[in-house]
């Protein structure tokens, strides 16, 4: 039995890693953070050129027809770089169309989403509720609002999660739709609210409980993968700082308390990799276990990322709390991952329910 990534998967991940090392290094990252409402076109275009938006799109619609694990390892790499960009919302929009769209809707939109000619996003949250029976909006003429929609101002197409596990799509130019940017903590992934006033939307006719569950699982797995990448980078940054920062005439990495702190962080993070790998693998290969594994991965990885990011800030001392220090970007990204699509406690309860505890 093979427990490692394939050579092809490692090559995909390494290609994206090399690209981000050149295009999302510290100076450029800070520029993106200073201008959070702008679409990072060079990073997004680079991902398009590498075929990332096409990874999970079926071949018949111009995609590569790969499994979710291939997209998840890209999410890990983006998390390691804290790379800004719309991949999360775009991927959820794509997945919803694959699972719930009609043949006509798929033929119209999936080739454009795969090629990057159209940018997609995904709207789920309503006043603190994220999915399923908790949602209130329904029908093909909407009144109300959706919060926390990634890159909504730049999206050409937005898939909306409705009550009763239904999905609808709306184009940004639709009459009755207005978009309001939100004040966000994580400036690497700007959010906006959608406001509907008798806004006509196009229902996805193959919506179902199973499709809604799979779109949710996709979100949880991608957030978990991003969290593993971000937590790994936070540790690397803390270790690098400990090797160069001097205090009382000594490199602080020689202090035993800091050594123990860094070692505990590393022991916390390394086992996380297998949890998100298994969740992504189960999505395509073990459907009966998929929802519970996705819930556990989201809950554990996002929670530990936040813990490790806080520890990494402490390891940097006072400089870690300043705008100029990149570690603050990872702490804020950890806060986003922890909250988006529901807090860890929500998904631990969901995992317990799925296990019939």
Q: Describe it for me?
A:
The chain has helices spanning 7-23, 26-34, 41-49, 68-81, 87-100, 103-115, 209-244, 256-269, 272-285, 287-315, 327-339, 344-354, and strands spanning 120-123, 141-150, 157-162, 166-171, 177-181, 191-200, 202-203, 246-247, 250-251. It has 357 residues and is α+β, with helices and mostly antiparallel strands. It folds into three domains: 7-115, Acyl-CoA dehydrogenase/oxidase, N-terminal domain (Butyryl-Coa Dehydrogenase, subunit A, domain 1), CATH 1.10.540; 120-203, Butyryl-CoA Dehydrogenase, subunit A, domain 2; 209-354, Up-down Bundle (Butyryl-CoA Dehydrogenase, subunit A, domain 3), CATH 1.20.140. The strands form three sheets. The protein has a four-stranded mixed sheet. The mean pLDDT is 93.
Structural shape? globular
Order of helices and strands: HHHHHHEEEEEEEHEEHHHHH
**DSSP helical segment count:** 12
The strand line-up of the biggest sheet is 1-3-4-7
CATH class term of the largest domain: Mainly Alpha
Mean pLDDT: 93
- Label the CATH architecture of the largest domain: Up-down Bundle
What low-confidence regions span 5 or more consecutive residues with pLDDT below 50? none
What is the CATH topology classification name of the largest domain? Butyryl-CoA Dehydrogenase, subunit A, domain 3
Structural class: alpha+beta
Residues in helices, as a percent range: 40-55%
CATH superfamily of the largest domain: Butyryl-CoA Dehydrogenase, subunit A, domain 3
Instruction: Give the radius of gyration.
Output: 20 Å
How many DSSP-defined strands?
Answer: 9
- The end-to-end distance, rounded to whole angstroms, is 30 Å
Proportion of residues in extended strands: 5-15%
Number of domains: 3
Regarding quaternary structure, how should these chains be classified? single chain
- What characterizes the major β-sheet? 4 strands, mixed
């Amino acid at each position: 039995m093979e427990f490692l990534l394939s050579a092809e998967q490692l090559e995909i991940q390494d290609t994206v890693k090399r690209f981000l090392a050149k295009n999302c290094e510290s100076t450029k990252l800070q520029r993106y953070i200073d201008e959070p409402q702008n679409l990072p076109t060079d990073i997004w275009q680079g991902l398009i050129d590498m075929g990332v938006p096409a990874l999970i799109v079926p071949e018949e619609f111009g995609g590569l027809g790969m499994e979710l694990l291939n997209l998840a390892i890209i999410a890990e790499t983006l998390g390691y770089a804290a790379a800004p960009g719309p991949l999360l919302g775009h991927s959820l929009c794509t997945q919803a169309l694959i699972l719930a769209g009609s043949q006509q809707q798929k033929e119209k939109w999936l080739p454009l989403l795969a090629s990057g000619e159209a940018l997609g996003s995904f709207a789920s949250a309503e006043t603190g509720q994220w999915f399923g029976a908790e949602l209130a909006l329904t029908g093909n003429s909407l009144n109300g609002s959706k919060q926390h929609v990634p890159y909504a101002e730049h999206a050409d197409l937005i898939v909306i999660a409705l009550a009763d596990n239904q999905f609808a799509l709306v184009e940004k130019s639709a009459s009755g739709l207005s978009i309001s940017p939100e004040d966000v903590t994580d400036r690497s992934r700007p959010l906006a609210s959608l406001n509907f006033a008798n806004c006509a939307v196009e229902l996805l006719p193959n919506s179902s409980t199973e499709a809604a569950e799979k779109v949710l699982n996709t979100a949880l797995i991608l957030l978990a993968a991003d969290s593993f990448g971000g937590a790994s980078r936070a540790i690397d940054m803390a270790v690098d700082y400990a090797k160069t920062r001097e205090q009382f005439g000594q490199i602080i990495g020689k202090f035993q308390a800091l050594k123990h702190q860094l070692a505990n962080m590393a022991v916390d993070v390394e086992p996380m990799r297998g949890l998100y790998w298994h969740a992504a693998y189960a999505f395509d290969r073990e459907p009966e276990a998929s929802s519970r594994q996705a819930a556990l991965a989201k809950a554990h990885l996002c929670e530990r990322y936040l813990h490790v990011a806080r520890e990494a800030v402490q390891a940097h001392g006072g400089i870690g709390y300043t705008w100029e220090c990149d570690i603050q970007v990872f702490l804020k990204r950890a806060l986003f991952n922890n909250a988006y699509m529901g807090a860890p406690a929500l998904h631990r309860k969901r995992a317990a329910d799925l296990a019939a505890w």
